[in-house]
Each structure stands twice: as structure tokens, then as C-alpha cells.
């Protein structure tokens, strides 16, 4: 921050350091235990001290001198024409400093990360419930909310289009039309047919990211006419560019500073909360803060795409897949956002991690007047996983075959070809993963005694008769792509600086809970043997690192940190190598010491530094990909990750209550970089998947969000989380990935819902073709007579 703005705010951002990381020194621990630092060590999260001490600077806690508060007026209708907006009553209220509408946007009136189609404020039409109409800045948050409520908007309510199937024939909801993208995938012989054919219709609900910390931000005007925005952004450079275009400013006059992110699974990607803040700060000349309520959070950010899927699977008499036909319809809501990318993943992975010689998939993403959909962990892949695994269960039942055995007969492996025509060149141990969960011992049955009532579905107060409980075992096998797809230019830049035995990493990769800040410390410890490593706060004065999605920062930003650290290592070792007449490759760094292969040279890193400051900047850019063509063909993905889950559930077949007893997980991780952190990420992903399977559904009625709060939207709690057994981690390194590691969080989210649904089918014999699973879908009606 600069000038008066620097004096106007008391914002403090964390310096993430090694203090919370336990003992340092690198190399293995005592008695052959895992290393204490460096790659492979279970260092605690880099921000654990600040969070435990209550000093972590969440955006909702920020404050500045002369602070004003913002509130946003949102549409109560999903579809309406705006006839007039009268802000006079709001502007006249004591304490109100500014009111802005679409007329006050000095630059571009529309924004969008991928498609520029979303207005900052609705001007003529409202296209979804909760769309922003105006924003207010006042000297007290209650005054701001009252003023926003005092804005008089006259609407002509229109009939909403809420059925995505009707969107094709409906009047255009947007100047760009209702169809966002259509992908017709054609692979193999359309006349191919199998001896056994099963069909299914599947529906996937609208899952919300439901962050524990709702959106918040602080905008501070600068003396040069620019503005600084403090917020929990996960892609600050893109947010800066979008905001600058709307403000009518050059990007260098807008700065985004990343505050503490209270977790992110896609909900932090929409700058719609940040742009009104900046407009109000520029209008008033004062710092302006917004802290969204839970209702505003539900109304304002994107959700997982509700999806309708029709499938037909063909197989031979031995259970080998012959052809898959599918139709996939994604409800994008009012705006395009990430729908094109989500559809590409859904179509490409529509057959799952199975060998399918013939595939014909039609995929569409359409606009409706439902709440906007966007990036949520495992988008596209999660929806199709639930459907194709339902089809595999149907095939197994029709053939009288064990469901796990059917999956094993068709498992994808390295060297096989996806229906997109892309050869799988990365490790693909699908069969190994599935065998691991299949062979893991099953959990014991609960005892039929009063003290164990809590083990029954529904708990001690809601449980039915123990005799009505049936146990089911089901399987899910899923896949996700790593990094961006279809020609996305993936690149990240990092700087490593070492001085006085302290290393600093400067990289605009945002720590969203995925562990990048911890990984960056481990990389530098591993390469340079430096104990104390700081990770600088992120802002847009640094070179861009891209969004925190698809495991990008483990691969791309981690790779940039590694390359920069290796460049510093060369700078450190070259004088020693020259002095002793040897190559730097003959020197190694371990436990803070530099030694030569022959033992002639032995010194500490501190002695070799001798007070010098060394630094280097490097980039990492993976190999390019290409868009899918008009037949859905192309090398669209940098790499793939796989997971197998076996779910064990107990179902009360009279009440439809479901209790998940155990989830056994085997995952393809490439390389374990931080064992405890990896286990936590997998467990969290499985739990999020259980929520999608059983409870999480942001319900709408004619486009209106019902119960936008955490009482109406049921997140799984610790009481809902089952035993999660990580039975196998396959460490077959991907040779094109830095460290050989693969992303860990998304693929268990994708796979877990399918496994739970499979287990409920096993317990009840019911088709279970909708997520989340409703109680009536698990009720088994007793035969009459």
C-alpha cells in the first residue's frame, strides 16, 4: 500500500513462517522415522499458529480508519424486467454516503472470468434470484442495510425458465442465447451393440460450497485515484483485471491483497462481491467494508451444476463394456461462468475410468433463471461418476456378477485411450486401487443392544426397529483432470530469496487450505537445507500464479518454487565447486550441511552463505493441451488422477434413514509430499462427497432459493462423518509433474457420492438414481399379503 492509503488502514497480513513447523533440519527422523522437514515430512499447516492464537487476518476482521460499511440490494425475483430504480430515499438517510447502480459503473458494465456476460448490477433484466441491483455505503452496517432496503425498484415480473430441458425452446434469457455449449463426442462405431443393455436416468442436485466463513472484503482508495481491495481471493490477478475494467482504470491502479482465506472449494472465484466494494470506495474516497450474511453468501456465489443424465450401457456376456451412449445436460443458471469447462470434463469422463471401445456422448450447458452454477471441486466429473457407476451396478445385477469384479474387468490402465482420443500416458492404477478397497476387511456389524442405538440410522431418538436395518456395500471409481484443460495456458512464477540463513518465498499462489504455503516451505528446506522459511503474503504486485483450482499450485506453483530454489542452490554451490575443482552435481545439501561425494568438502549452509543474499525467479509451465474438436476429440488434459472408494452403509428400509458406516479409500497420489496433510485432504474430500450424497441440496422453487441458511441447507457434521480408512496410496510418480505428485482433494469428492449410492442400492435393491438420496428412495415397501 502507498501514500494516504497506507496510513488509513491498520490491515496486517500474516507472514507464514517455519515457527509452527516443529523441528527443522531435514533428512530422516530418529530410528528411520519420516523426515522432520522437507518433502515427505508431516509439517503442520503453515498458518496453524495464527489460526490457533486468533490472529489470522480473515477479511471479515479487517478494519481501517474512517471505515464505511456496504450493503447490496438483491433481486427478490428470479426473472423480471426492471422498470425503474429510485435511490432518493436511501441517499437521503442520515449516515448514507453513497448509492450506486448500473448507471454508476464507469467502465465495463459486464464481467466474467471465462465469458463476459454478467452485469455488475442488473440494468434492464433480472436473471436470477439474488442478482445485485444496487449497493450502499454508510457509516454503520445497520444503516447500510436499511438504506439498501429503502431503494424502490419497480419490477415487471416475468415467467422464469427453471427447467433446463425447456431452455432450448424458451425465449433467449441473455443476448448470447440460452445454449452456452454443446459437445457431441463421437468415438468408435455407432452401430456397435452389446448382448446386454441397461439404461438409466439420473439427477444430481445443486451442491453449495457453503464456506464456514462467508464472503467479506475491504476496499481502500488510493491517492492516485486507484483502489486497493483486501479480500479472500483465490485468483487475485484475474480479480484485479476484471475489477479494473469495471472501474475504468488501468490494472496497475488496482491492487488486490489476499487476506486469510477461510477455506475455498470454488466459492471464492466470483468477484461480484469485490467490484461493488471498489466502486463505493472510489465514489466516497473512504475505506469501505462488506461482510456478507449467510443468506447473501448463498445468493451471491456459484454452486455445483444441477445435472440431468441419460445413459445406455452395452456389454458382452462376460461383462466387458462395448459401447456407452449418454446425454448430459448441465443447468448453468443465469450466466456462463465455468460451465463450458465443466461440460468438457463431464463429456470427457462420461464413461469413467473404464475401457470403452465405442462412445457417443451428447453434452449441453444451458442458461436458465436458476441460481448461477460454476466451479465447485470436481465439477462435471462428480455428476457423471454418480451416473456411470449406477450403470455399472445395473450391469452387474443384470449379469449376476459381483460389482467389483465387473469394474475390474473394464478398468482403465496406462496406455489405454480415452473416448476423447487422448492416450493415458500418466500412471493409471485403477485396478490396483479397486482391489485394495475390495479386499479391505469389512467393519463389524453393530450389536443389537440398547446402548448401541446411536449406531443405527437416525440415532437414538429417530431409529426404527433394528430388524428393519439392512447393510449394503457399494463401490465408486472416479477420475479428475489436473490443471486447466483445453488449451489453458498454465503458468506460475515464484521467487526464492535467502539471506542470513532465512529463506523467503514470493509467489502469488493463494493458500486456500490445500497446503501450498506448507509445501513451499518443504520444497525450500529440501533443496537448500535452510531451516527457517517464510512465505510472503500474496498481492497483485507479484507476478501472477493463476487460480487455486485443479491441484494447480501443487504442480505449477510448487514447480516454480522448486526451480527457483534450485537456481539459488546453484548460486550457493558454484563458488565451492570452483574452489575444489568439481561440479556442483557432486555436492549435496542435507541437514543444513554441504558435503562432497568424496568427503573432502564439508561445511554448513550458513558458512557457505557468508552473509550473502542470493535470489532467483523461475516459472513453471506444463506441456500444452488442445480444445476438444467438433467430435469431442483432442488431447485436452495435462494429466489425470484416480480414486476408488468402498462404502458401507446401514439403511432403515422402513424409514429410509441412512447411516454411512465406513468409507475405504485407495487413491492414486503420485508421491506423498506431506502424509498428514494428504490424509486430511482425502478425509475432507470424502466428507464433502457424503454431503452431496445424502444431505446437501440447495433447493429452489420456481427459481427462488428456499431456506438460504445453514438450517435449511444440511451440511454433514462430525456426527455424520463415518470411519474413513485410507487403505492404499499408490505412489507411482507422474514423470511430467514436479515431484511426481498428483492433486488429492477433488477425486475423493467425485467418487464418494457414487460409492454411497451404490451401497444404498446394495442394501435396498432400489435404483437410487438421484443425489442427494431422499429417504423415500431407500424405503423398501413390504410385499402385500
Automatic annotation (TrEMBL):
Residues 1-41 are annotated as: Disordered. InterPro entries: Ald_Oxase/Xan_DH_a/b, Ald_Oxase/Xan_DH_a/b_sf, Ald_Oxase/xanthine_DH-like, AldOxase/xan_DH_MoCoBD1, AldOxase/xan_DH_MoCoBD2, AldOxase/xan_DH_Mopterin-bd_sf. It holds the Pfam family MoCoBD_1. Residues 53-159 form the Aldehyde oxidase/xanthine dehydrogenase a/b hammerhead domain. This is Oxidoreductase.
Amino acid at each position: 500500500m502507498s501514500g494516504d492509503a497506507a496510513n488509513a488502514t491498520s490491515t496486517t497480513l500474516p507472514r507464514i513462517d517455519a515457527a509452527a513447523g516443529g523441528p527443522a533440519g531435514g533428512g530422516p527422523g530418529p530410528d528411520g522415522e519420516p523426515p522432520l522437514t522437507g518433502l515427505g515430512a508431516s509439517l503442520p499447516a503453515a498458518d496453524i499458529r495464527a489460526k490457533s492464537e486468533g490472529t489470522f487476518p480473515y477479511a471479515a476482521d479487517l478494519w481501517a480508519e474512517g471505515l464505511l460499511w456496504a450493503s447490496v440490494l438483491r433481486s427478490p425475483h428470479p426473472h423480471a424486467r426492471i422498470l425503474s430504480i429510485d435511490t432518493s430515499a436511501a441517499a437521503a438517510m442520515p449516515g448514507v454516503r453513497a448509492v450506486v447502480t448500473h448507471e454508476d459503473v464507469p467502465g465495463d458494465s459486464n464481467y466474467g472470468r471465462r465469458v463476459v456476460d454478467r452485469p455488475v448490477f442488473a440494468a434492464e433484466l433480472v436473471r436470477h434470484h439474488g442478482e445485485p441491483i444496487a449497493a450502499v455505503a454508510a457509516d454503520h452496517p445497520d444503516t447500510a442495510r436499511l438504506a439498501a432496503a429503502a431503494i424502490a425498484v419497480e419490477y415487471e415480473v416475468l415467467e422464469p425458465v427453471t427447467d433446463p430441458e425447456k431452455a432450448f425452446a424458451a425465449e433467449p434469457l441473455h443476448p448470447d442465447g440460452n445454449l452456452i455449449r454443446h459437445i457431441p463426442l463421437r468415438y468408435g462405431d455407432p452401430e456397435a451393440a452389446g448382448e446386454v443393455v441397461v439404461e438409466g436416468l439420473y439427477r444430481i442436485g445443486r451442491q453449495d460450497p457453503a464456506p464456514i466463513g462467508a464472503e467479506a472484503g475491504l476496499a481502500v482508495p488510493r491517492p492516485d485515484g486507484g483502489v486497493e481491495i483486501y479480500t479472500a481471493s483465490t485468483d487475485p490477478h484475474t480479480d484485479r483485471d476484471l475489477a479494473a475494467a469495471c472501474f475504468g482504470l488501468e490494472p496497475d491502479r488496482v491492487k488486490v491483497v489476499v487476506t486469510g482465506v477461510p477455506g475455498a472449494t470454488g466459492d471464492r472465484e466470483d468477484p461480484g462481491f469485490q467490484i461493488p466494494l471498489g466502486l463505493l470506495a472510489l465514489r466516497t474516497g473512504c475505506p469501505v467494508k462488506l461482510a456478507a450474511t449467510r443468506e447473501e453468501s448463498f445468493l451471491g456465489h456459484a454452486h455445483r451444476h444441477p445435472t440431468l443424465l441419460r445413459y445406455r450401457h452395452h456389454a458382452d456376456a462376460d461383462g466387458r463394456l462395448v459401447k456407452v451412449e449418454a446425454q448430459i445436460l448441465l443447468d448453468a443458471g443465469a450466466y456462463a461462468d465455468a460451465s463450458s469447462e465443466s461440460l468438457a470434463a463431464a463429456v470427457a469422463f462420461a464413461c469413467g475410468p473404464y475401457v470403452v471401445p465405442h462412445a457417443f456422448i451428447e453434452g449441453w450447458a444451458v442458461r436458465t433463471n436458476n441460481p448461477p452454477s460454476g466451479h465447485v471441486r470436481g465439477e462435471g466429473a462428480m455428476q457423471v461418476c454418480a451416473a456411470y457407476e449406477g450403470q455399472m451396478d445395473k450391469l452387474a445385477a443384470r449379469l449376476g456378477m459381483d460389482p467389483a469384479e465387473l469394474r475390474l474387468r473394464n478398468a482403465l490402465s496406462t496406455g489405454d485411450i480415452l473416448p476423447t482420443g487422448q492416450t493415458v500416458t500418466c500412471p493409471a492404477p485403477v485396478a490396483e486401487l479397486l482391489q485394495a478397497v475390495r479386499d479391505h476387511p469389512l467393519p463389524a456389524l453393530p450389536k443389537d443392544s440398547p446402548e448401541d442405538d446411536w449406531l443405527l440410522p437416525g440415532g437414538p431418538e429417530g431409529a426404527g426397529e433394528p430388524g428393519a436395518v439392512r447393510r449394503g456395500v457399494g463401490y465408486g471409481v472416479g477420475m479428475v483432470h489436473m490443471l486447466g484443460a483445453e488449451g489453458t495456458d498454465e503458468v506460475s512464477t515464484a521467487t526464492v530469496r535467502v539471506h542470513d540463513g532465512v529463506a523467503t518465498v514470493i509467489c502469488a499462489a493463494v493458500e486456500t487450505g490445500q497446503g501450498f504455503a506448507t509445501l513451499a516451505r518443504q520444497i525450500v528446506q529440501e533443496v537448500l537445507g535452510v531451516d527457517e522459511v517464510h512465505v510472503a503474503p500474496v498481492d497483485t504486485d507479484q507476478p501472477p500464479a493463476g487460480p487455486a483450482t485443479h491441484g494447480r499450485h501443487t504442480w505449477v506453483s510448487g514447480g516454480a518454487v522448486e526451480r527457483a530454489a534450485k537456481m539459488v542452490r546453484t548460486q550457493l554451490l558454484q563458488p565451492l565447486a570452483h574452489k575444489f575443482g568439481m561440479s556442483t552435481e557432486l555436492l549435496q545439501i542435507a541437514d543444513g550441511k554441504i558435503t562432497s561425494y568424496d568427503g573432502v568438502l564439508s561445511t554448513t549452509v550458513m558458512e557457505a552463505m557468508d552473509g550473502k543474499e542470493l535470489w532467483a525467479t523461475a516459472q513453471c509451465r506444463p506441456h500444452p493441451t488442445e480444445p476438444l474438436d467438433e467430435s469431442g476429440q483432442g488431447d485436452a488434459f495435462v494429466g489425470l488422477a484416480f480414486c476408488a472408494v468402498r462404502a458401507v452403509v446401514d439403511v432403515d428400509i422402513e424409514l429410509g434413514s441412512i447411516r454411512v458406516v465406513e468409507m475405504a479409500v485407495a487413491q492414486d497420489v503420485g508421491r506423498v509430499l506431506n502424509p498428514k496433510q494428504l490424509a486430511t485432504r482425502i478425509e475432507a474430500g470424502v466428507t464433502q462427497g457424503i454431503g452431496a450424497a445424502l444431505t446437501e441440496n440447495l433447493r429452489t422453487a420456481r427459481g427462488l432459493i428456499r431456506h438460504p441458511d445453514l438450517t435449511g441447507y444440511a451440511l454433514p457434521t462430525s456426527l455424520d462423518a463415518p470411519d474413513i480408512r485410507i487403505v492404499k496410496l499408490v505412489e507411482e510418480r507422474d514423470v511430467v509433474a514436479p515431484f511426481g505428485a498428483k492433486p488429492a482433494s477433488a477425486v475423493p469428492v467425485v467418487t464418494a457420492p457414487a460409492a454411497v449410492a451404490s451401497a444404498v442400492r446394495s442394501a435396498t435393491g432400489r435404483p437410487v438414481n438421484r443425489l442427494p438420496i431422499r429417504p423415500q428412495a431407500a424405503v423398501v415397501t413390504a410385499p402385500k399379503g
